[in-house]
Amino acid sequence: MRYLIHELAKKVKIKHVIIIWIAVNMASAFFSLLYADEAYYVLFSKRLDFGYFDHPPMIALMIRIGQFVFRNELGVRLLALLSVSAALFFTYKLADVQKPLLFFAAILSIFGLNIIGFLALPDGPLLLFAVLFFMTYKRFLLKENLLNSLFLGLTMSAMLYSKYHGILIIFFTLISNLRLLRSRMFWFAALVGVLLFIPHLVWQFNNDFVSVYYHFFERSASHYKFSFTSEYLIGQILYYGPFTVLFMFFAALRFKHSNLFEKALIWNLWGILGFFLLSSLRGRVEVNWTLPILIPLLIFFLRYSVTKPIFTRWFYISAVPVIVLICLLRLEIVYPVFSLNIDRLNDFRGHRDLGKEIIEKSNGLPIIVNSYQMAGLVSFYTNTFVPSIGVNSRRNQFNIWHINDTLRYKRVAFVDNYLDEGVKIQNPYYKEYEVTFIDSLPVMDDVNISTKINKLSFLPNENIELKVHLFSKKGPENYRDAGIYTTRLCASLYKDDTLLFEKGCLMPIDLLLKKNNGEYNFQIDAPAEKGSYRIEISLNTSRLGCWNTKKKVDLTVN
């Protein structure tokens, strides 16, 4: 075994590794159906802009370009796939270690990388521009000239256009070398980055900084759960391993920097991990948010292995079963060989047949759905644009587009998983869904709710007067009750996730806007028990549910 690896290592070159990696991921991209988030980003690509509710625009642009080449799943994923491949190639070059077979074993054994490697997600371009940033920063440290400064600014801007997490890479790099603050060339790079990012900042301004508010406030949990932190820690091990990652972190712990570039890598590795560990105190952290740490992790791993043959040997032994398992999972994504009933695998199943079934059962009516992920999937696999209605879900890009306006008070086919009164979907992966016919669709997701205050403090049982203001750019007649669907303004009091009570305004929304100028005062008695609570102000439509424009007010009872 040792001899075989030794002989193979002498023949394998990095170009072979990258070519095989691209080929394998192109096969996965071509033969597997879209993941829900990918389909959502495809909708972005149909309406290119300088920003979107959830993300900056880089992934939308890449999807748009890729679909000029292939009009299928591979086209959606093409540029993101090539971005990850290029990022790995440049990471290997940065490591400056000639061990392509070991590098290949390392990337094949990283579970998260094998998923991100062929999906059209913002992580792909972020990874590419992050490693280009590090390459440029290394050159900048050697020579602070105009060209290196210009490229540094370009890569900083490109990271931010890919994913907002790019700001962490810039921050921890700066922290690792505060002398940059005295460099005129660094300030020039920062100026270039800011100037290039201005179109997105203008977009944020024109849309009330919706992305900032969502990521900093709406994503936060109402209260802390230990599971947020434990899931984050366990998730990092499983996402980057599950077992081989221990070798990589061990190498990172033993690594001693000898220059400012290596110091920046260390700061980014532990800084990003620490930042999201702290973020778990505010809510759930997605495992892929730390993806840029792969760059320093792989570099430290390759460099440590140079003088540690025993370390390398044990890594190969540990990597083999992990690689086999990951390859089987990748095969299962493409085709259910083992018929594993796992939710994450089922996310790649049944979309094409679902699209056909929805078309058949919608009777030619306009189709709407009850989630933005489903909107993307149904749109892609019916080859038509299907909007999300915006009830019982979080805010999303459809709140900015207001596409539902064209369907107001019209008869529609509603694809949902909770009304239990429509035509059932027979697709085995979507058995909980149905097609419900709505004779007159109410649309309330363009009514904004304002309370002017976000926090309240009262004594137990004290009366609370909470002034609420509704406003919209359209006239009141657009918000009347629609047949059996009546909409009312509601105030709900919660303790953690438990609903304590709910109060509703009896006046219809159109009259509230017309006669009261959208103003209403809720009279609420503070709970008798001291503690932290929250009040949610929302628009609730009978049968359909709660519109996602709700407003949250924190309440402290002292």
What's a quick, concise take on this entry?
This protein is an alpha+beta fold and 558 residues long.
Description of the structure:
It is a single chain. The protein has 558 residues and is of the alpha+beta class. The chain has 3 domains: 2-334, no CATH class; 350-438, no CATH class; 448-557, Immunoglobulin-like (Sandwich), CATH 2.60.40. 52% of the residues lie in helices and 13% in strands. It has 22 helices and 13 strands. The strands form 3 sheets. Strands 6, 8, 9, 11, 12 and 13 form a 6-stranded mixed sheet that branches. A 4-stranded mixed sheet has the order 1-2-4-3. Helix 2 (14-31) runs antiparallel to helix 5 (73-95) and helix 8 runs antiparallel to helix 9. The termini are far apart. The model has no long low-confidence stretch (mean pLDDT 93).
Low confidence ranges: none
Percentage of helical residues?
40-55%
**Number of self-contained structural domains:** 3
Proportion of residues in extended strands = 5-15%
CA gyration radius, whole angstroms: 26 Å
Task: Spell out the key features of this protein.
Immunoglobulin-like, 558 residues, alpha+beta, single chain, 3 domains, four-stranded mixed β-sheet, globular, six-stranded mixed β-sheet
